[in-house]
Amino acid sequence: MRTIYVVSDSQLEELKRKERINELETLEGSRKRLEESYQSRIKILNERKNELQEELKDLAPAKK
């Protein structure tokens, strides 16, 4: 047997509003974590790029 709840239109609207607020907060948190991860990865890639450029300078043939 299922339970059925009867709510007023205003209560339903309030429930929907709370759900939307919760979803928005979840999306904003997700976006923030994604941006932080992205920036962290860019930093790692740039550091490695710089390391490789320095190694290439050291391996360049000496000019006569």
What does the model show?
With 64 residues, this protein is an all-alpha fold. The protein contains one helix and no strands. It has one helix at 9-59.
Task: Throw out a few tags for this protein.
1 helix, mainly alpha, 80% helix, 64 residues
What is the topological layout?
Blueprint: H1 9-59
In short:
The chain has 64 residues and is an all-alpha fold.
Q: Mean of residue pLDDT? A: 94
The low-confidence runs, each spanning 5 or more residues with pLDDT under 50, are none
* Secondary-structure element pattern, one letter each: H
Terminal residue distance: 91 Å
Number of helices: 1
Instruction: Report Rg.
Output: 27 Å
Strand content: under 5%
